[in-house]
Amino acid sequence: MERPRISYVGACCVAALTASVPAAGQEGADVARAWRQGHEPAILREFSELLSYANVASDAPAVRRTAAYVRERLEAVGVEAELLELDGAPPIVYGELNVPGATRTLGIYVHYDGQPADPGNWTHAPWEPTLYDRSMEVGGKPIPLPADGQAVDPEWRLYARSAGDDKAPIAALLPVLQAFGEHGVRPTSNLVFFFEGEEEAGSDHLESYLDAYRERLDRIDVWLFFDGPVHQSGRPQLTFGVRGSMGMEVTVFGATRNLHSGHYGNWAPDTGNVLAHLLASMQDADGNVLIEGFYDSVEPLGREERAALDALPPYDQELKRELGLAHSEGEPATLPERLLLPALNIRGITSGNTGALARNVLPSTATASIGIRLVKGNDPARMQELVERHIRGQGFHIVREDPDLETRLAHARIAKVTGGGGYPAARTTMGDPFVQQVIRAGQAAADRAFGPGSLVLLPGMGGSLPLYLFTDVLGRPAVNVPVANHDDNQHAPDENLRIGNLWYAIDLYAALLTMPPAVVP
Asked: Residue 517: which of 430, 437, 446 has the closest Cα?
């Protein structure tokens, strides 16, 4: 059965975007804001409908339904949209909006897939969007979605998987294009929409898509990545790079079977202790990685990036208070400074059981999942080589599969290392002419929504995106344009979006789509 859709799209929209000219004296940002103010309940209902579509990349039928829905919504607001497909991969939602006389083409990247979610850890089911009158953390209560004409409080929160990461940009783009179509405002750039369905699963097929459809993408002058949260202070920000990501698992071995700790403790190796010593050898108590060469390949900042870093608002003390931290790694270095260094994180450790399931045994194995965040200049393969060289330096013989008895008897310490791969970091110079145009448009939108001088320019953010495929492979500058609230529980249970951030996204996107230079007469 076809799902009912909540629609606020007018029939005039498609023709208007391709044929109209800007109304005299009207700016895109004014039109989009006024339209939003007159349609806020409908926008929230439409957003809720989008959030109700399950979107984990491993669930191919669900992801395809989500992609089809997004394509329909783009078509309804005047975008020529289709699904690009490769065998075994979630589809790309691709769209074009070509503007007569435009001399610039913007590529707009969004990912419509989301992280897996365990319903048992959520207050409400992950794909049953629930509106709250405030955040849950401050005692907010669930409320119904608003009816037409009802006032909408920007402090409301909409809870659902992908509310902040990364369906919010789609929910903000649609009203902007709707408003432009109805009021005769034409974008000042050609627009190419490229919505991925596998980002949260590692973007395994993204490079293949870019290769297959390269001729459609070569005309793009600058990519805008609509993803991520605003600054931790709540101020808007633009970021010009992301960290790369890679990971591996390390398993150490003791006896061939679990042993009674009373009978064999102090004699047979305790794998949890062996692993703890190995991990402790990789990093000191202040968070500095001790692996030789780990920091050697970091690419220095350019002049504009260093100036932007120096101009960042001091916010570490407020953030530590919010997060209950008396100390941060690398002090006195700030969070933005630490994000410009590669990081080694222990994502999880397993060795036996704890709590009520704890047993008096020496586990035969212990495993750590290690995540490495890369910065500009780091090569994933080289970084893995450095980690493995360090493990060998601690006296371990490295294997790729569980060791047989002969191997166990030949080596006192054995580590199975699996995983690796990943992708490198990327950073776009802030001095690029197209990037400067984006910065000016972002500043105008931020000044309007938050006050003069509010925009934060961050050389690189801490999260990871496959940005390098666009900057290094396609050879185009890319700017990350985040809009979600910083406390949106990204990737975690009870993910949410503050409604005021959705309104800011509409302001920002309208400014970006109508930024100078304007359409050539």
From this structure: 437
User: Domains of the chain: which residue ranges?
Assistant: 30-114+133-240+428-513, 243-301+340-423
- The pTM (predicted TM-score) of the whole model is 0.84
Residues with Cβ within 8 Å of 324's Cβ and at least 6 positions away in sequence, in order, are none
**Positive/negative CA dihedral, 436, 441, 444, 446:** negative
Amino acid residing at 504: Y
For the chain of 521 residues, list the mean pLDDT of each consecutive stretch of 10.
37 40 60 97 98 97 98 97 97 97 96 97 98 98 98 98 98 98 95 97 94 97 96 94 93 96 95 97 96 96 90 91 94 92 95 90 96 94 97 98 97 96 91 95 94 93 87 96 96 97 97 78 41
CATH topology of domain 243-301+340-423: Alpha-Beta Plaits (3.30.70)
Name every residue whose Cβ is closer than 8 Å to that of residue 38 and which is 6 or more positions away in sequence. none
CB atoms within 10 A of CB 287: 17
> Sign of dihedral through CA atoms 397, 403, 409, 414?
positive
Domain 30-114+133-240+428-513 has CATH 3.40.50.1390: no
